[in-house]
Design a protein that fits this description.
The chain has 361 residues and is α/β, with parallel strands linked by helices. The protein contains eleven helices and twelve strands. The longest helix has 18 residues. The chain starts with 33 loop residues before the first strand and ends in an 11-residue tail after the last helix. Keywords: ATP-binding, Nucleotide-binding, Transport.
Length: 361
């Protein structure tokens, strides 16, 4: 991701002398684009190394909010951690690249350059905020530790910016910074996680299930905060979620994952309004209804695959697909992009284009 300011060379490791300048102003670089290419992540198991991501390709446009949805085990969080080159043993990135504007291929970073990139370039909000907070230190002390580890010269400015961010999220900044995590509610801890991801002016922010286990009112507040801060700070944002309603409310683009693959990707309104992949259609049919014919909601048959039960060849969705063809058992469908929508499905590729027009070359 892009840093707050580059040195003359523009290399990821260079920093300006204004390390303490934490306000995103006119000089701040534009939001970065992200290009994931042929990304393979494997986990070591008693059965050998098994793929959690099987050659993922995904392009995230600068300045957008992109949602990544799918059932548990589809590879969403593994993909998110790969963007930080933070996959931990027994997992590893086996091949592929993650190109981020202003930072280069994150997969090739390690050591001190990678540590500097996290936080100052790449902000991450964990699914369970309390798991990323030190229970023995106040939030303020953890904030100062973060600033020192990234060489921030003006720690007082860092604290002021943190208080401002917390205040805009409806919290008493001074009180929160003086609190331990157990003194804060789940919604407050989640907002603290967002503050810590933004306070160093990261330009690419990744949110892993930011509304999980929150009540509806707090969830709505968190989503409003995400939208406002994304717009005001000019960010590129990725949101991992299993909630299609959350994705519909917040995101501009939507990537649907299944079995370690992106099976459909496009504008959120188009993906939800006219889903092309059978898995996306099944996810939408499974959403409970509060009005109309409530019997129309139907669960997807079968179970999501695990690392050990993924098909060795062919389409990853073949065992649960209602439109399975013979070719699906032997040949993995290549992603086909038509008018900005990418779908990996033999049945869709054999059908007419979604809008009736001829496919563009």
């Amino acid at each position: 991701m892009t840093t707050l300011s580059h040195g003359p060379s523009g290399s990821p490791g260079s920093h300006s002398s204004e390390e303490g300048d934490l306000v995103a102003g006119p000089a701040a670089p534009p939001p970065p684009g992200v290009r994931v290419r042929d990304l393979v992540v494997v986990y070591k198991t008693p059965l050998g190394e098994l793929p959690a991501l099987g050659g993922v390709g995904l392009t995230v446009d600068p300045g957008t909010i992109t949602g990544i949805v799918g059932e548990s085990g589809s590879g969403k969080s593994t993909l998110a951690l790969s963007l930080l080159n933070a996959v931990q043993p027994p997992g590893r990135i086996a091949s592929g690249s993650v190109e981020i504007d202003g930072l280069g291929d994150v997969v090739r970073l390690d050591g001190d350059p990678l540590r500097r990139a996290r936080g100052r370039h790449l902000g991450y909000v964990f699914q369970a905020a309390q798991n990323s907070l030190n229970p023995l230190k106040t939030i303020g002390k953890q904030l100062l530790d973060l600033g020192r580890s990234h060489g921030v010269a003006d720690l007082a400015a860092l604290v002021r910016d943190a208080k401002d961010l917390l205040g805009r999220m409806g919290l008493d900044g001074a009180r929160v910074l003086d609190s331990h995590q157990h003194e804060l509610s789940g919604g407050m801890r989640q907002r603290v996680g967002i503050m810590l991801a933004l306070v160093l002016n990261a330009r690419l922010v990744i949110l892993d299930e930011p509304t999980t286990a929150l009540d509806m009112i707090t969830q709505a507040t968190i989503l409003r905060i995400i939208r406002e801060i994304h717009k005001e700070r000019g960010l590129t944002t990725l949101m991992i979620t299993h909630d299609m309603g959350v994705a519909a409310e917040v995101t501009d683009h939507l990537a649907v994952m299944y079995g370690g693959q992106v099976v459909e990707h496009g504008r959120t309104t188009e993906v939800l309004g006219s889903p092309a992949h059978p898995y996306t259609q099944g996810l939408i049919r499974a959403i409970p209804r509060l009005s109309g014919d409530i019997t129309k909601a139907s669960a997807l048959p079968g179970r999501p695959p695990t690392l050990g039960t993924l098909p060795k060849q062919g389409c990853v969705f073949q065992e649960r697909c209602p439109v399975r063809m013979d070719v699906c058992a032997t040949v993995a469908p290549p992603p086909v992009t038509t008018h900005g929508r990418t779908v990996a499905c033999h049945a869709t590729a054999a059908a007419p284009p979604l809008d009736g027009r001829k496919e563009q070359p």
